[in-house]
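[Q] Does anyone have a clean structure-token version of this?
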Amino acid sequence: VQRVLQTRRLHAEVQEYREVLQDRGFHGMHGRSPAMLRLFDLVRRIAQSDGSVLVTGESGTGKELVARALHEESPRSGGPYVAINCAGIPETLLESELLGHVAGAFSGARGARKGLFAEADGGTLFLDEIGEMPPAMQTKLLRLLQDGRVRPLGANDEVTTDVRVVAATHRDLSELMREGHFREDLFFRLETFRIDVPALRQRGDDLERLLQYFLRRHSAALGVPVRRFDAEARRALQGYRFPGNVRELASLVERAVTLARGEVIRAEDLPDRVREETAGSAALASAAPERSTGTAR
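[A] Here you go.
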């Protein structure tokens, strides 16, 4: 009997490993909801063009995955894919990073260096957090998008580049334009195509699919036999709003798999914020009929 049970357990583990390997989704994005199916179709169609793309959405929704999918689905897939976070580079270095420089262009520039536009020649350049780009660099970026020529810092000559730009932001660029922090002409140049990535709370049954996907993946990666969430844990997760979206969900499941004692994840294995928010929502729901009844009297 023990051998039979062990064999069944091993077969189940092998099947889980196969599902993890096979369930790759659409370029790393997983979902069957109407919102995600529309997104996948839009990416496939836009990828065939060469126009700039603006990808918007909340933090953690997978904007960089969309940018990479645009590259891999496009005729440029054989070329380089280069990414930079505009919020993670100091203003004084961002221009050099994007445009490059020649030797002696500034203090410390001992040798020439290609910029990211030159590195991405023939491919795609992903500018993450474009809303954080300094105004002076916005002006240079606009000119570069218009004529496709780059002049490295300290150089006399311009270099022609063939780059498709995909930009992303979680900020409201319309608000930034009203405040004078983002150029309107650059916005319209970047927004030849626009892709809005839906938040997790807008994806319906994808939450359950993603829970199972991350459960299988992290269980396999950690080598632990966690199989499922119990009813209380599942209710807590379904009642949580996930402000960090899919990125938060992935981290949350990894934590729960690591802390679980045995094959079942319980509510106590979830972060306090998940249980507290769900409990608060339940308390409000139960109090609502009482208030309504009191009003009727």
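[Q] Thanks! Anything notable?
[A] The CA atoms of residues 229 and 265 lie 5 Å apart.
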